[in-house]
């Protein structure tokens, strides 16, 4: 499926349409919000196979991972919002001093307006739809910006969203850097961005022009500390599972492990045993191991591995053309190593 980028001229029009729809008040009704939240669930439920196929095409992701990480989370969030929205929107007693006793002030939650949600390529389904559900529950209009590196998914979402949700209040803008730059020139009432710190700084700088409130969910290096008293076999399996899921493309995946020197060799051996148990036919031939999103991303990782001064215990293979990076364990890595640079 090819991805058609949104025209730069159409981007302000989409923003204005969403704003007018929100100002009309049709998102104010709790009943309307509940109906739209339910529709998000049906959007996923009715098109599960198409979404799984899209994730497979974009990321080489096994179907089971999409079921576990994407569908399950979206269903749970939709159910929680649907069941809780009455309590979330109810007037609440406000703290006040004795002189205001007879006025009995109350606080009533209010929508913000038009919300922009920008998601990365690793889990675009739940990183777009979960914020969408929350914003709908809050009575907001929403514009979604899917990642350009997942063309099959992003095209599918643009096709399906107007079939299930109000097409004026909830819209999709597809594109790359020029389109995102145009989006960030506009005034939003809240921006939700998930991704890396470099782009987050660009988003934050754009938001500062209008003092737009931001929610930033950013990846990090994510260390694992291993106590010498733990079960190394179980620990190795858990660490490796967290690292190889979605071919390691998870913002909270374990990045490096700190272990006492006296158990390093035993822990590496446990990781190797876990690797061989997970992928008896080898990860490259396994239906349970995905691929890196683009050749450029794979080439970048290859450069990091080639630049390490540590010891490659196993793995290290990179096939840029196939976007394949083998699960790799490197020992004796210092803080200034290439693998610790980003």
From TrEMBL:
Signal peptide start and end residues = none
InterPro entries from the entry? Ald_DH/histidinol_DH, Ald_DH_C, Ald_DH_CS_CYS, Ald_DH_CS_GLU, Ald_DH_N, Aldehyde_DH_dom, Aldehyde_DH_NAD(P)
Active site positions, chain numbering: 217
Q: Name one GO cellular component term.
A: cytoplasm
Q: Name one GO biological process term.
A: aldehyde metabolic process
Please report the stretch or stretches of sequence annotated as the Aldehyde dehydrogenase domain: 8-342
Return any one Pfam family short name.
Aldedh
| Keywords assigned by UniProt, alphabetized | Membrane, Oxidoreductase, Transmembrane, Transmembrane helix
Protein name, UniProt field: Aldehyde dehydrogenase family 3 member B1
